[in-house]
Protein 1
Amino acid sequence: MEVKRIFRGVSAKLLSDFSVSAMYEHQGNKGSFREGALRDFLASDRMPSKYGLGTGEIVSSHGEVSKQSDLIVFDRLNGIPLLYSDTVQVFPVESVYGVVEVKSKLSKDELLKALENIKSVKALGDDSVIQYRNGPIAYARKAPRPFGIVFAYGLANNSLESLANNLQEWESSEEKQFWPNMIVVLGVGVIYHIGAGFVSCFTNEQILTSISTTRLQYEEDTFFHFYSTLLSLSASVELIPVDLHKYLKPSQRVGKNVVKNHDGFRKPECKEVFRLNAAFIQYLLDYFEGVEKITNREWLVKQLGKLPIGMEDWQLESKLYLYDPDGLPGMAQLSASAKPEGGIALDTESTLLHAHGIEINGDTYVIPFAYFKPEFFEAVPGRFID
């Protein structure tokens, strides 16, 4: 039996379902029927069991939310939907392989809407390093971006060529990391990216090397190519474990950087809450460019003179940046210089004993309070101490 013939029949069935959905007067019902036809086919044992299919919004631990996605491919086995019901579904981006934006007729306006939706999803997955632990082993690697496909039941008085031109126009002002992985028009053909030597570029990593787009009129074989590419793209995304603690106290984007633990400061007799500003964060990044990290073990010995009881090796060997241009004294140095007549005079403003750690793009930066200056802070809008 020829496999292509099977998918030609599926393609015809989807078109038939779409024709039925066109009879619905209520636009919301029509959209739900249209998306449901595709989702029902894929959910009927056409996708490996580890892939779940949903619809809704996607969120990041930075507090950002995507636009509504028509079809979300998520991790059914290890993923944790934050909300899952017939009407409301919210997924952490770490659980999402990719999205499919489903359209009835793919006009230029509908294409642009779909592209912006995909961009809002891909913007949640960033290039910052994610640190997590599996048993005694600590890992660190970049978080993947979900893939994004535009799937349409037909054209809208236009052509595959004009859609390709519309896509190139939109991409001319967008970074490659936000580009769609493929555009599909059922019964017509597909649009995707190519690299040097006419090499196909489907995955997010391949798209970064693309130099142009191409369109192929597969006609009745179009659905076969969509389905096979969907499976390949899903398999290409290696998800990371979901850490719900990050959602309880989310990090934030400050410019192009993802920052955590940089807020929550207060000043005496002031009800405003303060945070480290973008200028100081950028200063830290510039200061440590080309500088080696130190281990947590080294930092604790510098600060306390000894290692705390109960810490495991993986914790001690994790690395951080220590901002200490003046070589401030720690507990051991202060103990050595204590006055004989009694006690240790601890000037916490000029020692390593009081320090604050912040996280920038997955890396830890420890800054003794002695180095903090008023110009490094700004008030957090709308936050006050109760």
Protein 2
Amino acid sequence: MVLPSLQLALAALVVGYGLGSIPFGLLLTKAAGLGDVRSIGSGNIGATNVLRTGRKDIAAATLLLDALKATAAALIMSAFSPEAGALAGFGAFLGHIFPVWLKFKGGKGVATFLGSLLGIAWPAGLVFIATWLSVAYLSRYSSLAALVASAVSPVALLLMGLPGQAMLLAVMAAILWWKHGENIARLRAGTEGKIGQKS
């Protein structure tokens, strides 16, 4: 991975952060008359918490848009260089988790992680999806599936001959794991909710 110029790197991060910080979960739930999604469940703006409103369509739209905003950022800046695209994806991931508009309290970053990965190297994104589906099917834990898939993604990039991008995704995976600290604690305690489980 050849680092872009300082100006291009900063531009990539700014473009990525700007797109990533759009709080689609909050905007969609308010537009649908569901109130402020931050006042329910975990208080998170991501698709998992949006699902707690009972609106699967709004949750699905949130998931899609949270992923696409990172994919768009990566693809836009990839027109300048692959490295700039990777930095834009990283910026979008940070923007989603730490949006300036919401006092830096955003989502946990799973959809945006995937969106970044699809924009940087789509085959690695498919590895993420396949891993998530496999772990979710076997364990019924969405959080565990996300953790395992995020850990596998940098390895996939390494095998594709993209060590620089793999390093960047490893940093993103570490942040994602940190944001899932409470989920990890519940998984270890056996109290984490399973997919389809009624609360």
Protein 3
Amino acid sequence: MTQPIVEPAPNDPKKQEINPLLKLALELGPLMVFFFANMRGDWIVRTFPILEPVGDPIFLATFLFMIATAISLSVSWALLRTLPMMPLVSGVVVLVFGALTLYLQDEIFIKMKPTIVNGLFAAVLLGGLFFGKSLLGYVFEAAFKLDAEGWRKLTLRWGLFFIFLAILNEVVWRMFSTDFWVAFKVWGTMPITIAFTLAQMPLIMRHSLEEPEKKQPAE
């Protein structure tokens, strides 16, 4: 049977797990590259003059963001021979909107990327609920084992949270400077997301399923 390109569905016995710290590095690494390149763009160009034609720091950051995203997905593929669902969706949007940003030399496209990604995730999660599917397991099933009601409630909350993030991104990039927007992606969005995640722990605890105890082999 041909190996699927995208990661198997939650609870699929064929699904391989990756070290949580490595997974975090692969998902956050490209974002940190984007932040650093925008902040130290002039220094990067002086150190690597070949990058000067790329343009201003925001365009250099976009270029390196695209490369880092491609590397992250390539490492995931090399390790697991599958691609994680949500980073894949985000990566496709990064590459498409990044290419438009560089080609047209218009930073609006990369600024709209979080709006598109978060809106898409919200549509997928809430749309799945509409059809009776709790799709959040693609993200959290390795960490939590919840009953059906728990997954439904958690999926609904995350769907609404993604809508909030999409609206928040639109407000920030339209009302503040590019440097503020880039910094907010790292130092604003991430803490908000972590705080929201921690706020879901009471729900997770209420609906957690106990792992069955493994039987001891007979002596």
